[in-house]
Automatic annotation (TrEMBL):
This is Putative sulfur deprivation response regulator. GO terms for molecular function: monoatomic cation transmembrane transporter activity. It is found in: Membrane. The keyword Transport applies. It comes from Tetrabaena socialis.
Length: 246
């Protein structure tokens, strides 16, 4: 079973007061592991074993279920509560199958992206895509080419890796700049920022996915908080690219 995380407050009469956590033989004494120590509302940094315990210290412990029953009425602890229980891992065969399927699909899709990046150049498809995007954003004037590169790259990197998004959009951005008659550096900088600005999905970047499970986040949590960040990033990136790379 999981060992819950329990915040405990050391009493003034505790036998470990005045000793370091290491010298108090905390783990063998209490059958618990100290994860953090707070004093006067601030976390004490440095090596946990070297911290000298004082009365009133708040300790976050990883302890078994017997700890609370044994020490909840003990004079060694001014406060012993049960909180922050870690949920046991769920065994969901369907979720496992879905995850493996998505994993394989992403590998195959990224492989096809590399092939498609070459076809965009050789087949002239990049020029046609650039012309279509340019006509769709012509109402933005000089900001149109840079805006379309940022928006399109941001959408791609939300579903693919940033490397795959750059591979697909590089020839399009190049032809956009050529057809619009502008400095290619503007679209390229927009491409760089757009490919690195996936905040709206958990699958577009590795760290997004890494914190999704432990944090208990849902897919739409990323969209709700991340989409405004992408919008702000675009509102900053596009004017800068237009101003400095006219």
């Amino acid at each position: 079973p999981p060992r819950p995380h329990r915040p405990q407050v050391v009493s003034l009469s505790s036998p470990i007061v005045g000793l370091t956590i290491r010298d108090s033989h905390f783990r063998s004494r209490y059958g618990a592991v100290v994860l953090a120590v707070h004093r006067n509302g601030e976390r004490i940094t440095g090596g946990l074993g070297d911290i000298v315990v004082k009365g009133g210290d708040t300790m976050l412990l990883e302890a078994g279920p017997a700890f609370l029953e044994r020490y909840k009425n003990s004079s060694e602890w001014a406060l012993a509560v049960d909180a922050f229980r870690v949920a046991p891992p769920r065994r969901d065969p369907f979720a496992l199958f879905t995850s493996l399927t998505l994993f394989v699909a992403m590998i195959l899709l990224n492989r096809q992206v590399a092939v498609g990046g070459r076809r965009l150049v050789v087949g002239g498809l990049a020029e046609r895509i650039a012309a279509s995007l340019l006509s769709g954003f012509h109402w933005l004037g000089a900001a149109g080419p840079v805006t379309v590169v940022y928006v399109t790259t941001s959408l791609l990197t939300a579903l693919l890796s940033n490397g795959a998004a750059v591979t697909l959009m590089w020839p399009v951005a190049r032809d956009l700049a050529k057809q619009a008659g502008i400095n290619i550096k503007g679209p390229l900088y927009a491409l760089m920022v757009g490919a690195s600005s996936d905040f709206s999905t958990p699958i577009g970047y590795q760290t997004n996915l890494m914190v999704s499970g432990p944090g208990g986040y849902r897919f739409l949590d990323y969209t709700r908080f991340g989409l405004p960040l992408q919008l702000i990033s675009g509102l900053i990136t596009v004017p800068i690219c237009v101003k400095y790379f006219q």
